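Memo to structure team: turn this sequence into structure tokens by end of day. - J.P.
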Amino acid sequence: MNMRRILFALVMVMTALSVPAQLLYRISGHGLKSPSYIVGSYHLANVSFVDSIPGIRRAMNDCQQVYGELVISNVLGPDSVAIMEEAMMLPDGMTLNSLLSADEMNRLNAYLKELIGFDLTNPMLAQQMSKLSPSALSTALTVLSFVKKGGNVDEQNGFDDYFQKEALAQGKGVGGLETLAFQVETLFKGTPLDRQKELLMCLVDNAAFMDDMDECIIKAFYAQDLNAIQEAMDLKLHNNCDSRPEEEDMLIYNRNADWLKKMPTLMMQKPTLFVVGAGHLPGEKGVLNLLRKTGYTVEGVKDETVE
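Reply from structure team:
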């Protein structure tokens, strides 16, 4: 059995055996006068999936503010876009051609040719991509792969953004657990350039594995199965391509812990709907368990009638 079949067999088993099949959780107790909620998102998910989440309409109606990882409308402003574009670029005078060896460039070009039909020998594509940092290019390639497989990316109507727009339309507050500056530093500048290059080549050299892992995560999300999401995220190649503990801390667990410092005050002020990446919710150091360890009652919402 090849790796692709193993991955899909694994995700089917996980979906069948995992108990917590919901993305929306109710947070109560520990001094809260009214419950708050937290829902796991997949940033590229279709907005139409919102109504497939049991209890989400009631949660949105009951809460007086929505908090995401960021305030999405701020991120889409011209100043913020300029900050992100600058952060995604290689240092002045450097290009992918100067960063990668000839062999690495050949492997990258072969991957690009397979993915989009062009490579960096094309002047127009080179103009767009040759100065991107490896981290930024890896992100772009992941999105392009998602689109190639039939996914739809709508920057103006994103899954996370939907909840914030609904809150504003109802006259409710909107906020972010993080700042754009923090996310830029974490996602694009937090990893040394040589490690960024190594991870880019891991994506290029293990494209089938990476694509199938992403598809397992997407399937698990639409199945509303946090256990399956966690298991898919934990799949390993058992080489340098696997996330290092310090990288997982930087991208997930340290952020979870930081959110837990902010959430209690927000929930005491107003009933709040938190919308964060689903991968932040499960596990020992996931947000759900951290909330429980803090003293809150955290219950999966299965239908609209949950009191």
